[in-house]
Specification:
- The structure is a single chain.
- The protein has helices spanning 4-17, 47-52, 69-79, 113-123, 144-151, 160-184, and strands at residues 22-30, 33-40, 83-89, 93-101, 128-135, 138-143.
- The chain has one domain (4-184): Heat Shock Protein 90.
- It has 185 residues and is of the alpha+beta class.
Length: 185
């Protein structure tokens, strides 16, 4: 994977597979650090699985024998001088935090976070998703609870018009966030 947005999509899919109903994704760019945090209220992991989860030959999937998402994320973060931390409690959920050194030559670009968040919503419209992107002191976000309140009963977040609006909204907000940071520099 070549972008943090794609790692986000992969790890969030693990949360959905773990039956998470709530997913919080935070991307914080502060100074020379990019921190991606993905927290869910899914099934969580046992201590033994948590100890092995970064091994590419450990997976809970039955469709293949390798699980590469977390090992690749760990490698990408550590190649920049960063780290990966995973906290999980069975029956409570899991939090994955990847820290990248943004000034390192091997740091992947953030990529299209708006596109990744939109794809998550399209694939799991029932998910309660809170997305926050902080760039220094500025931030943008999307909370599906507020979106559902505005849309009212009976309108799915997977409706094509809603999906397109969410995509355009997030891309516009991401652009404004970057433009505002550029003006302050």
């Amino acid at each position: 994977m070549k972008e943090i947005a794609l790692y986000t999509l992969d790890i969030a899919q693990n949360s959905i597979t773990a039956q998470a109903k709530r997913l919080e994704i935070t991307l914080a760019e502060e100074g020379n650090t990019i921190t991606l945090t993905i927290a869910d209220n899914g099934k969580g992991m046992s201590r033994s699985l948590l100890a092995r989860v970064s091994d590419p030959f450990t997976t809970t999937r039955t469709t293949r024998k390798m699980g590469l998402g977390l090992p690749l994320l760990r490698m990408a973060a550590e190649q920049t001088g960063g780290s990966l931390t995973i906290r999980s409690t069975e029956g409570v959920g899991t939090t994955v935090e990847a820290v990248f050194r943004a000034d390192h030559i091997d740091c992947p670009p953030v990529g299209d976070m708006g596109g990744s968040i939109t794809l998550l919503l399209q694939g799991a419209p029932e998910l309660e998703l809170i997305y926050t992107h902080r760039l220094g002191t500025d931030q943008i976000g999307l909370d599906t609870r507020q979106l559902r309140e505005e849309l009212g009963e009976g309108i799915s977040l997977a409706e094509p018009e809603v999906v397109l609006w969410v995509r355009d909204y997030l891309q516009e907000q991401e652009a404004l966030l970057r433009d505002n940071k550029g003006m302050k520099a």
